[in-house]
Amino acid sequence: MKKLLFILVFSLLLASCKNNKEPYEGISLHPEVAVKTHPGKKLMETHCYVCHAPDGVGRDIRIAPPMTMVQNHYIKEGTTKEKFTKDFLSFLEQPSEARAKMPGAIRNFGLMPYQKFPEGVLEEIADYLYENNPLDEIPQGMKGQRKQQRMGQNDPTKTTLEQKTEIGLEYALETKQLLGQNLMGAIQKEGTLHALEFCNIEAIPLTKQMEEKYGAVIKRVSDKNRNPNNAANVEEQYYNNYFQEQIAQGKDPKPIVLPEGDKSRFYYPIVTNSMCLQCHGKPEKIDIQVLKQIKLLYPEDLAIGYEENEVRGVWSILF
């Protein structure tokens, strides 16, 4: 009996020791979530909707044609999937008027700048566009419906974790779209210097606007923050580093949802593209006047030195 009691006490002590690890050690403690949709849909929303928002969304600040218009110009009756994919990728890999199928869009919005996409992303988006109509699957938060209806919380095929993941993605992507469209509009109208001043004044109020809309806490945080208010805490830095590792390995990082009291904490990476580098790139590649303005507006700035397809920070959303 004494021997059995000793083994039981020893087991409890061992379990207690195992539970006293560093707070965020082991990503297996925080499972990734794969949303059960065509991967091209989420990739399109993440990489394209900042500029190519659906019809009726952000019309007053539109800076590029909606994806349905892109689809209609590239896919005609009789267009094969192979032909569409070849033309779609050809333009995105080397944007030019000669390769474009939308001269009207170029007249209205200018030629799309080149952007580097993670491996396989464009192929997935092309596959989705050929088989689906984006109008049928506008990101739910863009429709202005009630959250319970919007997130399909009565859908028995989805787990609670999947539903929460979709909520977090919706908040992040719609906030990203609002900030991105306004920022790109500022760049197009008055250049990068003006856009920098716009960010300094308007980024936080625009984010607050989304917080009030959804009753959530929405933050963009980083280990290399520009605004001191956007510095990542210990847990946020952990996931910032985790997403960096995923991107470095060529993986498409999935959202992470964690319980936080009676709420949920959502994490998702903010990944750089060519447009970001105008203000966040290597110092020697940033326009000298822009660099001076960054130092003037943000004396403690850390948010430079990036290249394309790197994690610049994370969405940290509490809802």
Task: Give a structural overview.
By secondary structure, the protein is of the alpha+beta class. The protein folds into two domains: 37-137, Cytochrome Bc1 Complex, Chain D, domain 2 (Orthogonal Bundle), CATH 1.10.760; 159-319, no CATH class. Helix content is 48%, strand content 8%. The chain has eleven helices and four strands. It has helices spanning 2-18, 39-47, 67-74, 81-93, 103-109, 121-131, 147-150, 160-214, 234-248, 277-280, 288-297; strands at 217-221, 256-260, 263-271, 311-318. Strands 1-4-3-2 form a four-stranded antiparallel β-sheet, with helices on both faces. Helix 2 packs across helix 6. The model is unreliable at 1-23, 25-35 and 136-153 (pLDDT under 50).
Provide the fold topology.
Elements (H helix, E strand, L loop, with lengths): L1 H17 L20 H9 L19 H8 L6 H13 L9 H7 L11 H11 L15 H4 L9 H55 L2 E5 L12 H15 L7 E5 L2 E9 L5 H4 L7 H10 L13 E8 L1
Antiparallel strand pairs: 1-4, 2-3, 3-4
Number of strands: 4
The global form is: globular
Helix content: 40-55%
Order of helices and strands: HHHHHHHHEHEEHHE
Rounded to an integer in angstroms, the radius of gyration calculated over CA atoms is: 22 Å
Which stretches of 5+ consecutive residues score pLDDT under 50? Answer: 1-23, 25-35, 136-153
Strand ordering within the main sheet: 1-4-3-2
What is the number of helical segments per DSSP (H or I, 4+ residues)? 11
> What fraction strand?
5-15%
